[in-house]
TrEMBL record:
Coiled coil: none annotated. Residues 405-439 are annotated as: Disordered. This is Carboxypeptidase regulatory-like domain-containing protein. Keywords: Signal. It comes from Nocardioides fonticola. The keyword Signal applies.
Length: 439
């Protein structure tokens, strides 16, 4: 009954908002229609195990589990507008990490179609929890950091209080490995395996920090340029404990590391693929170690230009250009500039069967393109299938966008031929990754 009530409230709220603002008119109405038909809606209700309404963040991930953005479920209801494709939605309890009654994150996978609507019902359950007291040098480790990691590369973190006591709730069902360091990141201790923790189950542990920690500074560049924002993970070769930090001006600094050698997992940056490095440098107790990692493998690029089919020397701006792979999955979307050009980059690997589809941008709410007095109605066109090679630039021949068959201006010529069929932007990926998201 609660779920049904939430559905009704959500639908009523949306209708009331529309009624309150009034129907859009003119260009605004056209743009809204274009936006609605070019995206799909995902909506639903979130309840707790007893039918309660929890305060929840809705995190949105792409099909490959790359993070996109987050929003909040309000009053147990949520509504999203998403471009066609497959997404993972993660519903996370907003209560603090030390609350042992916190619900575990709940994941749902959805496929969005243009103009479609998908309802998702989510019932969360209480997570497992850890508790105990951390010690450093025989005394309680005030405000120590406790991290629980699992085989899905999810990390859950909490801090001890002034007496070294801690609790960590909201843990999904699985086994965990716990490691701890003090608030000054001076002392560390051996990791602790918990065994499997089930929903609502608690496990007491006693971390003991007896080893002086070391530091590791890593320089990271991509094609000779310093990177920023890229996530780097340092994994102990001996224990499997790991620390994560982000690059700033090409440098990553890890504190509170256990002595030993590390494997470095460096995330991708722009057009450059990530890499895994095994530097020979050793982190020593109370010392600072320095090493360097370069990203050297660059993705493929696709470039081209969109022109007027009736006047091939005239480039067209404001054209939506979409790149698809051989399975019909959308790889990227661009908008041409005043020179009609577009470029697709990113971490594209060697592959065949790719195509580019061009059309007036639906977000503009109009199929008019060009500059007066040659501003005309246009339709869509696509390239023949082509291949790309990692590290190389694939330049495409000019793609001529045909005029629509109906025109209301004498200066605009009708299309001489209809464009070939293009793949649907709502084509779903053939498979979804089985890995769980980072948390």
């Amino acid at each position: 009954m609660l779920v049904a009530l939430l559905i009704a409230v959500l639908a009523t709220g949306v209708d009331a908002a529309r009624a309150g603002t009034g129907a859009p008119s003119g260009t605004t109405a056209a743009a809204e229609t274009a936006r609605t038909t070019a995206t799909g809606r995902v909506w639903g209700a979130v309840v707790g195990p007893d039918g309660d309404v929890p305060k929840v963040d809705v995190r949105i991930f792409a099909a490959d589990w790359s993070y996109l953005r987050a929003t909040r479920a309000r009053g147990g209801a949520f509504s999203l507008r998403l471009a066609p494709g497959t997404y993972h939605l993660q519903f996370a309890d907003r209560r603090p990490s030390y609350d042992i009654s916190k619900y575990a994150p709940t994941d749902r996978t959805v496929t969005v179609t243009a103009g479609g609507s998908r309802f998702v019902s989510v019932r969360m359950q209480r997570g497992g929890f850890l508790y105990g007291t951390a010690y450093a040098g025989g005394a309680p480790a005030k405000y120590a950091t406790i991290k629980a990691t699992n085989r899905y590369e999810q990390t859950y973190t909490t801090k001890a209080d002034g007496r070294g006591r801690f609790a960590l709730g909201g843990l999904p069902r699985t086994r965990y490995y716990v490691f701890t360091y003090d608030r000054t990141q001076t002392w560390v201790g051996p990791g602790i395996g918990t065994g499997r923790i089930d929903p609502g189950e608690g496990r007491g542990i006693t971390p003991r920090l007896s080893t002086r920690a070391g530091r590791l500074i890593v320089g990271v560049d991509a094609g000779g340029q310093a990177v920023r924002g890229t996530v780097v993970t340092a994994v102990s070769r001996r224990t499997g404990q790991f620390w994560t930090a982000s690059a700033r001006r090409g440098l990553v600094s890890f504190s509170g590391l256990a002595p030993g050698r590390y494997v470095l997992h460096v995330g991708g940056y722009g057009d450059w693929f990530g890499t895994t490095a095994r530097p020979a440098v050793r982190v020593r107790s109370g010392k600072v170690a320095v090493t360097h990692v370069s990203l050297t493998r660059r993705g493929a690029q696709v470039t081209g230009r969109i022109v007027d089919s009736a006047r091939p020397s005239v480039p067209l701006a404001e054209v939506q250009v979409v790149l698809y792979d051989a399975q019909g999955r959308q790889v990227g979307v661009r908008r041409t500039g005043s020179d009609g050009r577009f470029t697709f980059g990113g971490q594209l690997t060697t592959q065949t069967g790719m195509i580019v589809v061009a059309q007036p941008d639906p977000a503009n709410g109009s199929d008019f393109l060009g500059v007066e007095p040659n501003r005309c109605r246009f339709t869509r066109a696509q390239t023949a299938p082509f291949g790309v090679v990692t590290g190389e630039v694939r330049g495409l021949a000019d793609l001529a966008l045909p005029h629509a068959t109906t025109q209301d201006r004498p200066s605009c010529l009708p299309a001489s031929a209809s464009p070939s069929a293009s793949p649907s932007a709502s084509t779903s990926p053939s498979s979804s990754p089985s890995a769980s998201p980072r948390s």
